Amino acid sequence: MMNKEDIATKKNEKKYQQANECPITIFMEKIGGKWKPVIIWLLILNKVMRFNELDKSIDGISQKMLSQQLKDLEQLGILNRKSYPVIPPKVEYSLTPKGQSLEPILDAMKTWANDNVLYSK
Amino acid sequence: MMNKEDIATKKNEKKYQQANECPITIFMEKIGGKWKPVIIWLLILNKVMRFNELDKSIDGISQKMLSQQLKDLEQLGILNRKSYPVIPPKVEYSLTPKGQSLEPILDAMKTWANDNVLYSK
DNA sequence: CTGGATCCTCTGCGATACTG
DNA sequence: CAGTATCGCAGAGGATCCAG
After folding, report:
1. Does B82 touch chain A (CB under 8 A)?
2. Burial, A98: exposed, middle or buried (Cβ in 10 Å; 0-12, 13-18, 19+)?
3. Dihedral (C-alpha) B37, B43, B49, B50: value to the nearest 10 degrees?
4. Whether A83 and A44 share a structural domain
5. Do B18 and A116 touch (CB under 8 A)?
6. Is A104 on the interface with B (CB under 8 A)?
7. Which residue ranges does the record assign to the HTH hxlR-type domain (chains A, B) (predicted)?
8. Fewest Cβ atoms closer than 10 Å to its Cβ: which of A6, A29, A76, B69?
């Protein structure tokens, strides 16, 4: 929140661009984190994947994190969850158009990381 | 004797693309977090900024976090820190070419966030 | 096979105070 | 002005077991 002095000086012309509610920050909040980009990227490459296939494809992820992240992404409207009522259970995940629209961005991130040889810390 | 492609295809009998050491993950490790994208974006817009100007431009950041993130970004070769030996102290931050090359990516993220109206949670 | 439920660790981040 | 130094928390993420 703003205090009184801030409000009082608010009309002073700002010399510099502000960054409040920056859309980039919003983007990072939604798509960021340790696993979400990888999940999306795998679904871009493979179109449709089952829970277990994602699990095996992502090195080091736990089942808890995977299901949690999948739920988040589903709520964001980025991926579809299709469950078949069979035994054993079968669930397929795929991207929505909204999710697919992330491809160029993720691809640019990939290229940048490769080009700039971000050495393992 | 086997050539490299043979070995590669032998090993890739997996049906699905793997995600180990995904460059996207590396990207997120380096550029991700709550403040780094905003700092970079401000420096793209304003070219050169002083510590205090960044502080005032980024709503809610603490001095501790700001100096920490700036240090990280400097180590990554993304920004330059130029210190003038005067009193009171004066330090200017600006992007390196490597940092400037992030502009299209951040811009794409911004556009995506706007287009997809990621409602405040 | 696809998760949910617990419990635990670790660290990113925040609040505040202090300094050359 | 441009930072450090401390303290502390909440939440991200990990390990393991259990269930439909």
Report:
1. no
2. middle
3. 20
4. yes
5. no
6. yes
7. 22-121
8. A6
Do A100 and A50 lie in one domain? The reply is: yes
Statement to judge: residues A42 and A58 lie in one domain: yes
Element of type H or E holding B56: helix B51-57
Tell me the pTM. Answer: 0.83
- The candidate with the shortest Cα–Cα distance to B27, out of A32, A59, A109, is A109
How far apart are alpha carbons B15 and B4 in whole angstroms? 19
Q: Mean per-residue pLDDT for B89-97?
A: 97
CA distance B54 to B66: 8
Q: Based on the fold, state whether residues A39 and A24 are members of the same structural domain.
A: no
User: Stretch A48-69: mean pLDDT, rounded?
Assistant: 95
Q: Same domain, yes or no, for B39 and B27? A: no
B interface test, pick of A118, A119, A120, A121 with most B CB neighbours within 10 Å: A118
- Do B2 and B46 belong together in one domain? no
Q: Which of B55, B49, B43 is nearest to B90 (CA)?
A: B49
Q: How many domains does chain A have?
A: 2
